[in-house]
Amino acid sequence: MQRIRFLYLLVLFSLLLTSCQAGSVTTNLEAPVLSFVFNDMTSNPSIENSNVQLQSNAALEESECFKCHSDKDKLIETADPVTAPAESESSGVG
Amino acid sequence: MAPLELWEKVLVNADKYLDTVHGQIACTDCHDGVESSDKETAHEDLIARPSQDDMKVCGDCHPDKSETYSKSLHSTLNGYWNALDTRSVPENHDVLAQAFGNHCSSCHATCGDCHVSQPASVGGGFFNGHLFEKTPPMTRSCTACHGSRVGNEYLGNNEGLPGDVHFREGRMNCVACHTDSELHGQGSNCTQCHTAPEEMTMPAAKHRYGSIQVPSCEACHPNTTLGNDNIEMHTVHGSDLSCEVCHSIAYTSCDGCHVAISEKTGNPYFETEATYSTFLIGKNPLISYSRPYKFVTLRHVPATQDAFSYYGDNLLSNFDTLPTWAYATPHNTQLKTPQTESCNACHGNPALFLTADKVAENELQANASVIIDQIPALVIEAVNP
């Protein structure tokens, strides 16, 4: 009988502790951020009135700049030697 | 996010980029340089960041943005300038301009800094293979610069303090509140949204918090300040308190920033003395039409009278004209906070108020306009029979 009473008190005490626990709030950094976008109230970009000349995809694909900058291996091969970045002399929170 | 590899920073996403409008513009139209398979030749006179110095490149197709952006705070950094000018005298402005150029101007943001690449403070490099992002990615753009206070508060990075409810529950990113119009400095369009007669005749704001473009809680929660939502505390306090007074939790304050040029390397550097967590309510130093509150949350900014002593003596000779406990809008809003627990969580609680004893002796005069003389008395709450 005493054992049952002890168990009953133990359960009651546990419930009491649980109800007193402060609600913890966590921030889930993994969940995606909703895609709120700029509420763009101004006019759309205007290519017609600009000096920009649009090119065909084929022309750009033949561009030396594009050929190199879309080729991972070429970029690795031609990269400047890595120099250790200068250690910041700043201290504290900026 | 881990820093990008060198190649990763400049790798164009070939599959997607050609399908975009920008992918139909020759590389050299924006970047100059030379069409060549030889790297050195190709990079002659290359402009790595075409939007860095003027708005011509982007402004050709986006004239409405470029026209106003050059006057926006992200471009001019006038927030810093106003504080420096106010705390100094005209004779010191040239020397301060030199210091500003060495230590502060790197915060200037260009079109590309938000729409194409990560800022240098997180190592630079394309967000996504040179694709132009209409909406800047929050953690790789906005909080990469605004990280130590706003970013950490909003994302819940401060130990023991939850992130902002708008992020935790609403997954809202920065531009959900900070609109295109605000970030691009499109002041001329304010009246498209703000149509009340008072707002249409308002003089130009002298501070970002005085601008009607700046987000406000009331824009999405319009009934709260009018006391129309049947929440007693909203009715009782009305617009006397800024929303943050009740709905923010502890936030970051900083002390004592000093700048200098390193004798060893010749590079500029800064030192801040302390960073700590605070929650203090004080008087509103910036009462305006949009922010009429009598009491607001205040954050200690790292301003100090001898911050620029490397460049000369007493350059901030009018230091006391601005408070060092500045109007703050902590980005860690919560529905329930220690303040909302009861009336006497705030009333009669000296720990929450910026009283003179909490202000450094040499900053008392600067903060005279925000220091609370007498904290609100304890409320005798009615007891139901």
Task: Describe what you observe in this structure.
The complex is a heterodimer of chains A (94) and B (385). Chain A has a domain at 56-80. Chain A contains four helices and no strands. The radius of gyration of chain A is 32 Å and the shape is elongated. Chain A has 94 residues and is mainly α. Chain B has one domain. Chain B has 19 helices and five strands. Chain B has helices at 6-9, 14-17, 27-31, 39-42, 56-59, 63-69, 73-76, 78-87, 93-103, 111-115, 138-145, 147-155, 165-168, 180-183, 190-193, 197-200, 217-220, 232-237, 243-247; strands at residues 251-261, 268-278, 280-283, 295-300, 325-327. A three-stranded antiparallel β-sheet of chain B has the order 3-4-5. Chains A and B meet through helix 2, helix 3 and helix 4 of A and helix 3, helix 6, helix 14, strand 1 and strand 2 of B.
Largest interface: A-B, 55 and 71 residues
Q: Helices and strands of chain A, in N-to-C order?
A: HHHH
Computed over alpha carbons, the radius of gyration of chain B is 24 Å
Class computed from helices, strands and strand pairing of chain B: alpha+beta
Shape by Cα distribution of chain B? globular
Sequence-ordered SSE layout with sheet pairings:
The complex is a heterodimer of chains A (94) and B (385).
Chain A: H1 2-20, H2 57-61, H3 64-69, H4 72-78
Chain B: H1 6-9, H2 14-17, H3 27-31, H4 39-42, H5 56-59, H6 63-69, H7 73-76, H8 78-87, H9 93-103, H10 111-115, H11 138-145, H12 147-155, H13 165-168, H14 180-183, H15 190-193, H16 197-200, H17 217-220, H18 232-237, H19 243-247, E1 251-261, E2 268-278, E3 280-283, E4 295-300, E5 325-327
Antiparallel strand pairs in B: 1-2, 3-4, 4-5
